[in-house]
């Protein structure tokens, strides 16, 4: 009888015991974000950089990376410049994003005149280099990768997302591409447009790109108020930086702490328009 009571007691204890807490996200990097932290020019990670020589697959570039490995591996992002431009036009994003907990490569393209699809292929080649050959490859989680780009580089990031659906995030910035429909893109994508863009007007580029992405599990369209096509190349453009960072954190790092900056829709004097599907859990 005593054994029976003991068994019943154990069973009752199991029934009333609280369920174990959900495991913390293993990909979170850095402290809990605030509006001040995502607007800051540097995050909490000390960083270093190294140059990459031109290869047969992309035009070389610069890698920015956190120096400490105590937090574990990091997600990685490749960024392409636009038509006639070099990596210097997007270089400001390298240290800014790396110091928030990413490995970042800003690339030169094989030719400054390369078209968007070629830039997309080169972005993917740069990611493959990062994870397979670079001196920082052991710092990278090859399953957590993203792409960004400006102008034709932005169109290239769309092309890369279409080609490689395993990517975790894409951020085309004032993107230009002759293709207007991106219904096969399955990568979470934030498109950043500019209200006064006369090179890639939002009505014929960013907006139809966003609208067409019927297969993307999550998408957002941010239009920067009173901004030109070159807004993403301006090192002080806090609006571009803070929302690109939040998108990369949310989808490359699965960090739901950044949901607060993406949904409900952000507003403010620097935002002309914002549309989005709120991030899914």
The number of domains is 1
Radius of gyration from the CA trace? 21 Å
Mean pLDDT: 93
How much helix is in the residues?
25-40%
The termini sit apart by: 49 Å
What is the number of helices? 7
CATH superfamily: Alpha/Beta hydrolase fold, catalytic domain
Instruction: Report the structural category.
Output: alpha/beta
According to DSSP, the number of beta strands is 9
Strand content: 15-25%
Name the quaternary structure: single chain
Unreliable segments of 5+ consecutive residues:
1-22
CATH topology: Rossmann fold
Largest sheet: 9 strands, mixed
Please state how the strands of the largest beta sheet are arranged side by side: 1-2-4-3-5-6-7-8-9
SSE series: HHEEEHEHEHEEHEHE
Which CATH class?
A: Alpha Beta
How would the global form be characterised? globular
CATH architecture: 3-Layer(aba) Sandwich
């Amino acid at each position: 009888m005593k054994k029976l009571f003991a068994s019943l007691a154990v069973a009752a204890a199991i029934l009333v015991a609280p369920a174990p807490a959900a495991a913390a996200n293993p990909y979170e990097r850095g402290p809990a974000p605030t509006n001040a932290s995502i607007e800051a020019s540097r995050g909490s990670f000390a960083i270093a950089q190294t140059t990459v020589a031109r290869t047969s697959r992309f035009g070389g570039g610069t890698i920015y990376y956190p120096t400490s490995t105590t937090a574990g591996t990091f997600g990685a992002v490749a960024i392409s410049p636009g038509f006639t431009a070099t990596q210097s036009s997007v270089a400001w994003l390298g240290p800014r994003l790396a110091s928030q907990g990413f490995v970042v490569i800003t690339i030169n393209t094989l030719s400054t005149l390369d078209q968007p699809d070629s830039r997309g292929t080169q972005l993917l080649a740069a990611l493959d280099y990062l994870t397979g050959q670079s001196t920082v490859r052991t710092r990278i989680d090859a399953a957590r990768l993203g792409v960004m780009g400006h102008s034709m580089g932005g169109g290239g990031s769309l092309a890369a997302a279409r080609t490689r659906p395993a990517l975790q995030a894409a951020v085309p910035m004032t993107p230009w591409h002759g293709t207007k429909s991106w219904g096969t893109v399955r990568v979470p994508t934030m498109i950043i447009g500019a209200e006064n863009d006369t090179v890639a007007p939002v009505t014929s580029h960013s907006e139809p790109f966003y609208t067409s992405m019927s297969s993307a599990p999550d998408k957002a369209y941010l239009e920067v108020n009173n901004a030109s096509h070159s807004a993403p190349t301006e090192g002080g453009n806090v609006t571009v930086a803070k929302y690109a960072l939040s998108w990369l954190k949310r989808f490359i790092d699965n960090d739901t702490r950044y949901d607060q900056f993406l949904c409900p829709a952000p507003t403010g004097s620097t935002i002309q328009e914002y549309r989005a599907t709120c991030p899914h859990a």
